[in-house]
C-alpha cells in the first residue's frame, strides 16, 4: 500500500512472531523500505531490497543492514561522469521535476535530467517552446523513469502541446539505464538463460487473470538468489555457530551474514550481481532515442571505459559532439589595413599640399600681389590646416590601437588639436573677409586702414574662445577611455566573439560638444554672411572674398556631414566612422587650400628661381585646368 507507518507496524509484528527471522526481502516500495531500513539495524536483521529506487538509503553508514539488488538513480553517476570525461564536457545543467517545481541551471547545453514519463510532456513542451533542443543541446535522462514509447502513449486530451513538438524536442535524446533483464544468451547461475526465464515467468503470470507482472521481476528473482548465496557464504565465518543460533541481539552472527553478502558474485537473470557498500555494481547502458525507437549504443561497468556499439559522434546531429557551452573569445577590433593606407595617403598628400602652399607663400611674400593678400594670415590658414592633418594622423594611430596605453591623454589632445586647427584656419579666413567687408562699406577706402596685426587679434580672440571652452572641459569633465564591446555569435562553431574598442567618452560630453558646435556654427554663419555681402567686390589682389565665400560654403556643407557622422554613428562601426570622418576632414581642408592658393597662380607672379619653380610645379602639376603659359 506504500504506507511507511503500516510497514513499520507489520515489521514489528513479524519480528516478534516466531520463528526468529535472519533476513528480510523488501518491501518493494521506496517509502516503506526507508521506514523499515531505519528499524532493522536495531534488530541486527539483514534487509535486501529489489525494487525501491530511493536514494535516501544510499549511505551504508546510515543504513548498515540494507543491501539493494536493484539500481538507484545515484548508481548512474559514475556513467554520467565518464560521459563528461569522454566528450570533454566540464559544464552541465541538472534538471529535476518534483510536483509543480521546475528546477534548472542555465547557460549550459548538456542537461542531465531526473524526470518521470508522467511529467515529461509538460517539461518537453516547454523545452520546445524555449528552443532548448537540436544540434547544440544534449538531453540525458534516466531510462528507468522514462518509459519507451512514452510520447506515442500519451492520450490526446493529455497533450500540453502538439505531439510533433514532443518528438522534435526529444529527438536523439539519450537515456541511461540498467537492464532489468540481461541481454546475455548464456546460462546464469540459476540455470536459466535470461530470455527463457522471462518467458517462463510471463507464462506463470498469464495463468492468473488480473495479475500484472512488474518490469523489475528479474531483480526480485536475483534478490532471492543473492540472499541465498550470501547466507551460504556466511557459514564459513560462523565457526561453531549455525544460522539457526541467530537472535536479534546477536550482532556477531549479523556481521558474519553481512560479510557473506558482501562477497556475493554471480551472473543473474538481471545481469552480473555484486555489491559495494551494500549497493549493487553492474552494467549501465547508454540508449539513443529517435522517435519511438530506443537503441543501446554503449555499455559501462564502473572502473572501466565505455564500450561503444556505434561511433560516439553518430549519436548527435551532424556527427559532431556538442560543446558544453559557448567558447568565449575576446579581442580588439581588427582594423582595415586598406582603410588605414587610404586615409594615411590622403593625409600625406594633404599635408604635402599644405607645405607646398606654405613654401610658395613664404618665398613670394615680398611679391606685390602676394603681399597684398596678407601672406602672414595665409600662413595661419595653412598652419591650422596642418593641425587638422595631424589630428587625422592621430586618429589613425588610435584606430590601430597604438594609442591605447596613453589614450587618457590622447582623448583631450585630439579635441584640442582639431578644435584649435579649425579655428585658426577658418578664423583667418573670417578675418580677411571681415577686413574687406569693413573697408568697402565706406566711400573712401583711403580713410580706413586695417592692418594684419588687427586680423591676428581677431584670430587670437577666436582661439581664446576655444580655450575658454576647452580648458574647463579638460579640468571638470575630461574625456575618459570607455571600452565598447560588440558581441557576435557563430552558431556553427559555438563561439561568442567579443570585439572591444576603446573610445573617448564622458556622460556629459554632449553638453561640451554642444557649446563647441554653437560657437563654431555662429562663426560659420557670420562668415558666410560677410562673404555674401562682399561677393561683388572684384579687386583680386586684395579681395579673396569670392574664394573665401567658396571656402565658407564648402566648410559649412562638410561640417553638416561631419558632425552627424562623428557624433551619431555607432561606436561599433569603428572602420566606417574612421574612414568617413577622416576623408571628410582631409577633403574639406585640402579643398580650402586649393581654392585659396590655386587662383593666385593666375596673378602675374614672376618665377625667377628654380626653388620657386619647383614649389609651384609640386603644387599644381596635378591641376590640368591651369594655364601654365602664364608662368614666366
From TrEMBL:
Name the record gives this protein: G-protein coupled receptors family 3 profile domain-containing protein
Keywords, sorted A to Z: G-protein coupled receptor, Glycoprotein, Membrane, Receptor, Transducer, Transmembrane, Transmembrane helix
Membrane topology: Multi-pass membrane protein
The organism's taxonomic lineage, starting at the top: Eukaryota, Metazoa, Spiralia, Lophotrochozoa, Mollusca
First-listed, main subcellular location of the protein, grouped into a coarse class: membrane
Domain G-protein coupled receptors family 3 profile: start-end pairs: 346-603
Gene3D superfamilies for the chain: 3.40.50.2300
InterPro entries reported in the protein's UniProt record: ANF_lig-bd_rcpt, GPCR3_GABA-B, GPCR_3_C, Peripla_BP_I
Spans traversing the lipid bilayer: 340-364, 376-397, 409-434, 455-476, 517-535, 547-566, 578-598, 605-626
Cell division as UniProt keyword: no
Biological process terms in GO annotation: gamma-aminobutyric acid signaling pathway
Domain of life, per lineage: Eukaryota
Location(s), subcellular: Membrane
Any single Gene Ontology cellular-component annotation: G protein-coupled receptor heterodimeric complex
Molecular function as annotated in GO: G protein-coupled GABA receptor activity
Keyword Glycoprotein annotated: yes
